[in-house]
Design brief:
Elements: H1 11-14, H2 21-32, E1 39-40, H3 44-51, H4 55-68, E2 71-75, E3 90-94, H5 168-193, H6 202-210, H7 214-222, H8 224-233, H9 242-247, E4 269-272, H10 276-287, E5 293-295, E6 298-301, H11 307-310, E7 322-324, H12 327-340, E8 350-352, E9 355-360, H13 376-390
Antiparallel strand pairs: 1-3, 2-3, 4-6, 5-6, 7-9, 8-9
Helix pairs in contact: 2-4, 3-4, 5-7
């Protein structure tokens, strides 16, 4: 037979409560692929495929086995020729003996005759003739199977006595592992497809990727090729860093982005920078200490150009802006900018003497009809009446 038939593991590992069920599978798998010296050099990717889990899940099991002392590991670099490429992979060997492990569960093997739990020594109720109540060697009388009678099978508390049902914590842990594996696959695929990935700040790219949802990950990958084509059509010779593409979610700037999905598509439009709408967008982003995507005199804005947005066109002169330090005004502006400014933004507030605030064209954001309010009550009243009129 070409495939291994046996896998010997240390008996103490079976009752080691610091291990998890997946760890015992990993321990058995290591024993199936050892060489004559007892080392397993099999690829972690292949072993993860055999166990039906992700490579990160397998790596965590190997780490737990190593920390518990049931396996030893050795860098494979020392076995590679000097002219070969360096490697950081490890080979593992199962340790069949651990001197410091307490084998109390195996201490009774020498005198099983005194073990009351042993099948030959257990007291069995008799029916008067020395025969067990259910028949010699049989479970109690009755129709149907008795899966728990005399089997000694371990059952988890709260699982309706089903020994095969997995505890909730194990299910949640595996779900988290699958999410991490999905995130790692996304990062690897993105780096492979983004032109500047080699020179990009890897940590910042990872942070931006971690902030994306599963749907956003798919949209980001699907938008790479269209986004790069759009840059070529626009005559752009410089490709932005991958982390900037992810942080600012630039795939949403593409025309038709989101078509075919249940979410409404972002309405991207090219606006002349010198127009009222262009000046309004630039002023809006200046309040947020950000800058919109500008190409050849055109501002790309994914939101709708409304009277509320156009109100900023007449307030582009920063010299006339006011210092905002009132908490209610700051909260109102933060909510407004969060709804109308797209992409990455820096911290809005700054320190000026002993006050914390920022500069804005007015004390309060504009109303939906494009007028500027003097008090929060007036603004709330105007917006409520506007909503009522729209209905």
């Amino acid at each position: 037979m070409s495939n291994p038939r046996l896998s010997i593991i240390p008996a103490g590992a079976v009752t080691d409560r610091s291990l998890e069920p997946r760890d015992l599978q990993t321990l058995c798998l290591l024993g199936r692929h050892i060489d004559r010296a007892g080392w397993c050099t099999r690829s972690q990717v292949r072993m993860a495929g055999e166990l039906g889990c992700g490579r990160a899940t397998l790596q965590r099991s190997l780490d737990r086995l190593y920390e518990a002392g049931w396996v030893e590991k050795k860098r494979r670099d020392v076995w590679r020729p000097e002219d070969s490429a360096p490697s950081s992979s490890y080979a593992y060997r199962v340790k069949l003996d651990r001197d410091d492990f307490d084998l109390k569960s195996l201490a009774r093997e020498a005198d099983d005759g005194d073990d009351e739990s042993h099948a030959e020594n257990a007291e069995v109720p008799e029916n008067g003739e020395g025969v067990p109540a259910g028949g010699q060697g049989c479970p109690p009388l009755g129709r149907g199977a008795h899966p728990s009678a005399g089997t000694g099978a371990h059952t988890y508390a709260g699982t309706k006595n089903d020994p095969l049902e997995r505890p909730l914590k194990t299910i949640e842990r595996d779900a988290g592992a699958r999410a991490r594996d999905r995130k790692e696959r996304f990062k690897a695929e993105f780096r492979k497809r983004w032109p500047t990935a080699v020179a990009d700040d890897r940590n910042r790219t990872d942070y931006a990727a971690d902030a994306l949802t599963a749907d956003e990950e798919k949209a980001a990958l699907d938008g790479i090729d269209p986004f790069l084509e759009e840059l070529k059509r626009a005559g752009r010779k410089v490709v932005p860093a991958g982390w900037r593409y992810l942080e600012e979610k630039r795939w949403t700037l593409l025309r038709g982005a989101g078509e075919g999905s249940s979410e409404p598509a972002a309405r991207s439009s090219a606006i002349e920078e010198a127009s009222d709408a262009g000046r309004a967008v630039l002023a809006l982003y200046a309040v947020a200490k950000a800058r919109p995507f500008v190409n050849r005199g055109q501002v790309i804005y994914p939101g709708a150009v409304t009277p509320q947005l156009l109100a900023f066109a007449g307030r582009a002169d920063r010299a006339a802006w006011r210092w905002i330090s009132d908490r209610r005004q700051i909260a109102a502006w933060q909510a407004f900018l969060g709804a109308h400014v797209f992409g990455a933004r820096v911290t809005l507030l700054e320190q000026r003497g002993e006050e914390t605030g920022f500069f804005a064209p007015h004390d309060w954001p504009p109303r939906v009809d494009g007028t500027w309010s003097e008090a929060p009550e007036q603004q709330a009243s105007a917006e409520a009446s506007q909503v009522g009129g729209d209905e």
